[in-house]
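Quick one: structure tokens for this chain, please?
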Amino acid sequence: MLRNILSCSLFMIVLSLANPTYAHSNHYSGHHDEQVELTMKKMQRAYRAALRSDNIEQLKPAVAQLIEVTRQASVLHYGINAREHTQYQTGMRQLRTDLEQLRVAVVADDFVLAKKILHGQIKATRQQSHDKLGVERD
């Protein structure tokens, strides 16, 4: 259970992209509730579905789900202090910006650009956010 909480809390910042297995540093343990864990799992599933898509029609529902779950995650409390929560919110704002660009690409039926955004901007946002919060990668 603790391992699941630790793994899921990492996704609070942004999506798990290329490398979905991460571990939080110990001082974060035990500070995330069940709602955070469930929301992060949903984000991970939606992102993976988007990555697995082979065409724009497969990508559309995954992106819609990803946007919705990110919206839900944006209102959750993260961290053991105000600094962590503020950094989390900053990462979530950047992620929502990235996801808006992804949404525009999907609406334009630009599958290549959408995949580029998934693998590029969103991954970079995740890495920056994790670095600021001291999230360790396995």
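The beta strands are 22-23, 136-137.
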